[in-house]
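Help wanted!
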Amino acid sequence: MKLLFLIFLILAGSFVNGQTTDDLFDRLGDWDDSEALAIKTFRSTRIVNMQSVENPYQGELIFTIGHRFGNIRSGFYEMFGLDIATIRLGLDYGINSWLAAGIGRSSYQKTWDGYLKARIITQDGTLQSPVSLSYYLSASHASLRNIYPADYDNFFDRTSYIHQLMVSRKFSELFSIQISPIWLTSSLLPETGSSVSHLSLGTAARIRLTPMTHLNLEYIPSVVDGGIERTNPVSAGFDIETGGHVFQLFFSNTQGIADKAWLANTSGKWEKGDIFFGFTITRVFYL
Amino acid sequence: MTRLLLISLIVTGILANVNAQSSYITREGTISFFSSAPLEDIKADNSRVQAVLDNSTGEVAVRLRIEDFQFEKSLMQKHFNENYMESHIYPEARLTGSVENFEEIRDGSSKAEVTVKGSLTIHGVTRDVEIAGSVSRQGPHLICNAVFDVRLEDYDIRIPRLLIRNIAETIEVTVNLRLAPVN
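Answered by r_m:
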């Protein structure tokens, strides 16, 4: 019995002494992630063609240089499209933590564009939301001469509007998705010769390949064609993060960079080899 | 004998209970660091530091998540996480140890200079450390302060040659914890 008592004492003693630091961490429980925000659902403010749910950080001015080359199918004579480039120069600015604005100019129809983009809900934010939600409103103005009929050539005839909702979910560091209804409206598009009210449903996914490299896939089918005949943009791209900027390389069946261009005027077919190579370089400045 | 066993069981039970009840805990402590290099000063704050101090043993455990450090420039924060701290591989930094001279506080003194002896884990590397600081009473709370230096080399944190003039080799870490008693 004495022996039993002794054994018990030793056990009890070791239990009390056993309050090691590991047990101390147990007293804290698990990390509470309910307030953690899903940051960097996508690595850039654009996925390939369409806008991602991300805004520039507050005070960030992002200078964006976008290139789309010609059809790869054009062969060696055109250096597989590299001889032909359309370009968009843009500035994106984070006004505050939820609102961003930007302007851009693309060589396609000498188009000016301007936009506002608002982050409405952030995943796992104060609303305990499983998704992030942003809204994007863009106006683009085609300034190329002599493409509009004389009677339809005022400022507003030449301006198209895009409304887009970005609903995204970041499942992990490895994987995110986004679904985006995109509504394009214009009183007249020279591509179709009529007024347009077109709805697409953009879908996209991000897959992490290495800590600094991500694969983006994007498919934007028409839901209501509203007078536009086009093929649906299908794109695959890489986001490569390097010091101070994100470098995006991609292949797509559209040559347009401005939203209106790829929404209204995508004609390439992957299966026929109509593939356009493009890249975007961003450089961040802090104001 | 059985009675003795029973009594000792109860006593041990009470002891263990007291032990569990006399913790001081915070989940919103602050740890900042400051890097002073020829080209630039860099500062970052983490206000979600968790710490627990056992009143009876003077054992202490502190942990934080690297991603919770907030920088003035978001890009710096990104580089800090992805390039230097590799927070996707080593998400936490931890300190475990015992507070020497904690008896002074336990015995009712309102402020004491203390030393924490233990091990500090950053970037997956664990090293023995001795950190001098102070513990003071503020109502029911314990306020813990410390300032100490961390040599990046000690924790296998590599700075690219190009940035050697932007980032100091030794970082000053400031700890400010306000621990509440837990019953």
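OP: Thanks! One thing I noticed: The CA atoms of residues 253 and 275 of chain A lie 5 Å apart.
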